[in-house]
Write a structure and sequence with these properties.
Strand 17, helix 17 and strand 18 form a beta-alpha-beta unit. By secondary structure, the protein is of the alpha/beta class. The chain folds into two domains: 260 residues, Glycogen Phosphorylase B (Rossmann fold, 3-Layer(aba) Sandwich), CATH 3.40.50; 182 residues, Rossmann fold (3-Layer(aba) Sandwich). It contains 20 helices and 18 strands. The longest helix is centred in the N-terminal third of the chain and has 19 residues. Bound molecules: adenosine-5'-diphosphate (ADP). Adenosine-5'-diphosphate binds next to helix 1, strand 13, strand 14, helix 15 and helix 16.
Length: 475
């Protein structure tokens, strides 16, 4: 029986800020589904965001002290079972009672503590996995601690480490001088973590892991070049032999318009009529003109530059001259929040900007939209275009990373499953949206495309098997 432990900083439905949460909330169950005999568990921090209802389902596993450098910190461990997968939660209110998952001045310490706890707790829960699978910079130090501190220790020695890059932009960087004080690592390990004069958690994990993966084949290629690597290409080039790309999937039950209780009316590709009611409901809810024939363009995104917001800014006012409505749900950089808020104020008949993170509302918007815009500058995989497809909202995407691997242009010989463009410019974005809007006017052709998009299989089925094959290659 395979034993796998995922270490990650977020997982749906407990606490999430983006696609990582979706993946950690659904991939373990998909792996379990594909290999019934495996024991897969997940470990994450217990944030204050985790609801009382969820906490009521938890069982206290243990209480201990974890050492991080000179610190000796309280560490509680709770667990619950979700979809056949055991989720562990590391409790320390000083680190995780912060109102938000990330963005604190001491994030490096918060997540170094998490990683140290992950490796230190294994004997206490008597679970030595065959594969420790860490995700993104927040969990990267678990791989480094495993290999540097415990690599020669009995039972730890047999654990294979896998590190998955969900987004290379965030690497967990700090001052090298803090390495000993912050991480409690001897200076002989400096070459593992040092990169460009800084301490770099992600670099450490890439170097130490037995296998490195990222979340789409195209992104696995892209990050070998300086354009996409945020500086790490020399390290990845060196580790190319152990780098692979596996496309993410989505949880088709969690995102299921036929059953989703957030929607006023459920629908499916067999009975797609309910989508019209969802649109009408959202128009009423947002106080937009209730017009079935006007295409609704939606965006649901973190408001950060790599999501392509600069070219949306370039083209938005031209787009708003067209016969369409535009709804944006997102939070992030102040500059973008202010711009989109202002645009909604200037075009009250056409645009709404909702500056918040709201999972329930996001599903109502996915269901109501006609066109989903995702013009990312870079996109490791992207889940939002898959979720939008599931809810019958046709993606318009830029050809990069996982967007390139998941969406084909309508102009392709088989008709494609969305609209795509390559050059990063406002004009190209405008033209791609305009092509979608033009097709929307041809009712029969549009409906055919919507049904095709809804039927597209973005489940985990194929990719879960690829993960299992990846683990097996390490034996
Ligand atoms: P990333 O992980 O880079 O943010 P992805 O497309 O992989 O991008 O995943 C984004 C996930 O976060 C999707 O599930 C999307 O619906 C969700 N999301 C993004 N912004 C919001 C928001 N403001 N409210 C609710 N859900 C959001």
């Amino acid at each position: 029986m395979k034993k796998i432990l995922f270490a990650a900083s977020e997982a749906l439905p407990f606490a999430a800020s983006g696609g990582l949460g979706d993946v950690i909330g659904s991939l373990p169950a998909a792996i379990k589904q594909a290999d019934k005999d495996c024991d897969i568990r997940v470990i994450m921090p217990l944030y204050d965001k985790v609801t009382d209802k969820t906490r009521a389902r938890m069982e206290k596993v243990l209480e201990t002290t974890v050492e991080l450098g000179w610190r000796k910190q309280y560490c509680g461990l709770y667990s619950l079972v979700e979809n056949g997968v055991t989720y562990y939660f590391i409790d320390n209110e000083f680190y995780y009672r912060r109102g938000a998952l990330y963005g604190a001045g001491d994030d490096l310490e918060r997540f170094a503590f998490f990683c140290k706890a992950v490796v230190d707790l294994l004997p206490l829960i008597d679970f030595y996995p065959d594969y420790l699978h860490a995700h993104d910079w927040q969990a990267a130090m678990a791989v480094v601690y495993l290999k540097c501190l415990y690599g020669n220790t009995e039972k730890y020695r047999d654990i294979k480490a896998v590190f998955t890059i969900h987004n290379i932009q965030y690497q967990g960087m700090g001052d090298m001088y803090n390495m000993g004080d912050l991480l409690g690592l001897h200076e002989k390990f400096a070459p593992v973590l040092e990169f460009g004069g800084c301490m770099n958690f992600m670099k450490g994990a890439i170097v130490c892991a037995d296998m490195v993966s990222t979340v789409s084949p195209t992104y696995a290629n892209e990050i070998l070049s300086p354009e996409y690597s945020h500086g790490l290409h020399p390290i990845l080039e060196m580790c190319k032999g152990k780098l692979t790309g596996i496309l993410n999937g989505i949880d088709r039950e969690y995102y299921n318009p036929a059953k989703d209780c957030e929607l006023v009316k459920n629908f499916s590709y067999m009975r797609a009529g309910g989508k019209k009611e969802c649109k009408k409901f959202l128009q009423e809810y947002l106080n937009l003109p209730v017009k079935e024939d006007v295409p609704m363009v939606i965006m649901i995104t973190r408001l950060v530059s790599h999501k392509g917001l600069d070219i949306v800014k370039e083209s938005l006012y031209s787009l708003l001259e067209e016969n369409l409505q535009f709804v944006l749900l997102g939070t992030g950089d102040y500059e973008y929040e202010r711009f989109f808020d202002e645009a909604a104020r200037r075009f009250p008949e056409k645009m709404r900007t909702l500056l918040k993170y709201d999972k329930e509302l996001s599903k109502r918007i996915y269901a109501a939209g006609d066109i989903f815009l995702m013009p990312s500058l870079s996109e490791p995989c992207g889940l939002a275009q898959m979720i939008a497809s599931r809810y019958g909202t046709v993606p318009v995407v830029r050809e990069t990373g996982g967007l390139y691997d998941s969406i084909r242009d309508y102009g392709w010989p088989d008709g494609g499953n969305g609209f795509t463009f390559a050059p990063y410019s406002g004009m190209e974005l405008y033209n791609a949206v305009k092509r979608a809007v033009n097709l929307y006017e041809d009712k029969a052709a549009w409906e055919k495309l919507v049904l095709k998009v809804m039927r597209y299989d973005f489940s985990w089925k194929k990719s879960a098997k690829l993960y299992i094959q990846m683990y097996e290659r390490l034996n």
